[in-house]
Design goal:
The protein is mostly beta strands. The protein has three domains: about 65-200, Immunoglobulin-like, CATH 2.60.40.420; about 210-375, Immunoglobulin-like (Sandwich); about 395-540, Cupredoxins -  blue copper proteins (Immunoglobulin-like, Sandwich). The chain has eight helices and 31 strands. It has helices at about 10-15, 20-25, 185-190, 200-205, 235-240, 345, 480-485, 525-530, and strands at about 65-75, 85-95, 100-105, 115, 120-130, 135-140, 160-165, 170-180, 195-200, 215-220, 250, 255, 255-260, 265-270, 280-285, 290-295, 295-305, 310, 315-320, 330-335, 365-375, 400-405, 410-415, 430, 435-445, 460, 470-475, 495-500, 505-510, 515-525, 535-540. The strands form six sheets. Strands 12-11-10-14-19-16-17 form a seven-stranded mixed beta sheet, with no helix packed on it. It has a five-stranded mixed beta sheet with strand order 3-4-9-8-6. The longest helix is centred in the N-terminal third of the chain and has 8 residues, at about 10-15. Residues about 5-55, about 345-355 and about 445-450 have low confidence and may be disordered. Bound molecules: CU-O-CU linkage (C2O) and copper (II) ion (2 copies).
């Protein structure tokens, strides 16, 4: 398969959708991953001279079980034949502790996979070598507010940020990525992301496939130009309102990804690391999926799904047994067609007309599994994986509603508000140690003007502790799109991101324990997040 090259004519023709679009688009710098043409940092400050950042820590670096150095810097990787692609990438070294705490992903822009055990103390010294402010966030981990990578802690080129925290999470597939306000989308797009895998005794006792049979896979979509360089938001404002959609699917940073396997069981950990694309995962031969885990680790017991709906930032862990396959066979993991939510501009046909984007809901191949080796390993799938204590709605001290809506001229909002660096509304305060129900209400469009009537799905993410999904309610207007994806939701277990479809209400319940301070909740469609579809909540003592 060859690369679909962005046609220059189309690019120019669609890049300016009008003055209003240009004005809003100007607020978010387009990505150019080269130091020479880097935009100013988003707070408008000029980069300060190198200065060590002092941050509160729970323990000294010397007390850490694992100490890592992570750096974010420009790099060039071979993605296509010919010219290498310029990217921004995390790289790292183990300063102290187990050498396998960091596993580089070969030939990729992905950052190294971090592997930790529950209860271990981690220290990370983050060195920033990019011409744009940034900070690392540990997606899904329960860490103190000062360690969470809130955008107010951004640092500039030449500066360092010291993290230290204990791994409180249960075994699971977490990840790390930048979180500077307004430019998270372009930075993740440029390559900044990596897996963060946590193990614990309970999980290890299960004897699930491990080592080379436990495979983390991140799915992302991108657009490349004729010189193999990444193109971000060629459609300008349209890409900001909808979220960026690429036309090439990369797995672990590689197109046309082939996964060689043996005839035995595997544990596949999938992360949707895309800026905005939702996948409806299905096998080419229609085999169902056996799901063993999601965002916050293992489920209580395996569950079956005909297909899997995976929204940005969500993770799914699959137990896939290739025992019955024969050597030489191939099976393709696809994204199946689904009904893209309609309304407003999408209904007007704008969605399908974008330059160089594969429309939301369009089918395509993601990766090919090639059965290459025979194996006699037949370790059975455990009937019970974990114990999950249900949080009872009766223990909730409050129910909060968060309305997700387009509110011109602000764009996508949460209860009509957009992000302000340290602002917290009264209803965004939570008492430490309490349990609350949060209800996300996707109203879709609102009012007149740009984006009026726009109906889009929003993958809602909360920092801090994982939540449980209580229930979903879908309106009649949103039913067709919902019906084409809902059998693929995996609402069991612990979650940190939940897809809220247009016309849908989703109630989640969680604890707010251990740490006070400012944490974020936001839409993980990164273009929406960058537009301000993000707010703080504050845990108060
Ligand atoms: Cu994956 Cu607030 O982020
Ligand atoms: Cu997060
Ligand atoms: Cu959104």
């Amino acid at each position: 398969m060859t690369k679909k090259t962005l046609s220059r004519r189309k690019f120019l023709g669609l890049s300016g959708l009008g003055l209003a679009a240009a004005a809003i688009a100007a607020c978010t710098p387009a990505l150019t991953p080269t130091p020479s043409s880097a935009p100013e940092n988003s707070t408008g400050q000029t980069p300060s001279s190198p200065q060590p950042t002092t941050t509160p820590t729970n323990f000294p670096q010397s007390a850490a079980d694992v100490s890592l150095a992570l750096a974010a810097a420009p790099a060039a990787v071979q993605i296509w034949p010919g010219q290498p692609t310029e990217v921004w990438r995390f790289s790292g070294t183990v300063l102290a502790g187990a050498a396998d705490a960091l596993q580089p992903v070969p030939n990729s822009y992905l950052g190294p996979t971090i592997r930790m055990k529950k209860g271990q103390k981690l220290h990370v010294s983050f060195t920033h070598e990019l011409p744009q402010e940034s900070i690392i966030h540990w997606h899904g981990l329960h860490v103190p507010a000062e360690m969470d990578g809130h955008p107010r802690y951004v640092i500039n080129k030449g500066e360092q940020f010291e993290y230290s925290y204990e791994i409180l999470n249960r075994a699971g597939t977490y990840w790390y990525h930048p979180h500077p306000h307004g430019i998270t989308g372009p930075q993740v797009y440029a390559g900044m992301a990596g897996f963060f895998l946590v193990s614990d005794d309970e999980e290890q006792a299960l004897g699930l496939p491990s080592g080379e049979y436990d495979i983390p896979l991140v799915i992302q979509d991108r657009v490349f130009d004729g010189n193999n360089q990444l193109v971000y938001r060629a459609n300008g404002m349209m890409d900001q309102m909808m979220g960026f959609l690429g036309n090439e699917i990369l797995v672990n940073g590689q197109p046309n990804f082939i996964l060689p396997v043996a005839t035995r069981p595997y544990r596949l950990r999938l992360l949707n690391g895309s800026n905005s694309r939702i996948y409806k995962l299905g096998w080419s031969d229609g085999s169902p999926f056996t799901v063993i885990g999601n965002d916050g680790g293992l489920l209580e017991k395996p569950v079956q799904r005909p297909y899997i709906t995976l929204a940005p930032a969500e993770r799914i862990e699959l137990w896939v047994d290739f025992s019955d396959r024969s050597v030489g066979e191939q099976i393709v993991l696809k994204s199946l067609p689904f009904v893209a939510p309609e309304g407003g501009m999408m209904g007007g046909g704008m969605m399908g007309g974008s330059a160089a984007s594969l429309p939301l809901g369009a089918p395509f191949d993601i990766l090919t599994v090639r059965i290459e080796k025979a194996s006699n390993e037949r370790s059975p799938l455990p009937a019970k994986l974990s114990t999950i204590e249900r949080i009872s709605p009766e223990d909730a001290v409050a129910t909060k509603q968060v309305v997700l809506a387009m509110r011109p001229p602000n764009g996508w909002t949460l209860n009509g508000r957009t992000f302000q660096m340290t602002a917290v509304a009264p209803e965004e305060r939570v008492k430490m140690g309490s349990i609350e129900i949060w209800e996300f209400i996707n109203e879709g469009g609102g009012g007149m003007g740009m984006g009026g009537g726009m109906m889009l799905p929003h993958p809602m993410h909360m920092h801090g502790e994982q939540f449980q999904i209580l229930d979903r309610q879908i309106s009649r207007a949103g039913k067709a799109a919902w019906d084409s994806l809902s059998e693929g939701f995996v609402d069991e277990g612990w979650k940190d991101t939940v897809l809220v479809m247009p016309g849908e209400r989703v109630r989640v319940i969680r604890r707010f324990a251990d740490f006070t301070g400012l944490f974020l909740y936001h839409c993980h469609n990164l273009e929406h997040e960058d537009m301000g579809m993000m707010r703080n909540f504050e845990i108060v003592a």
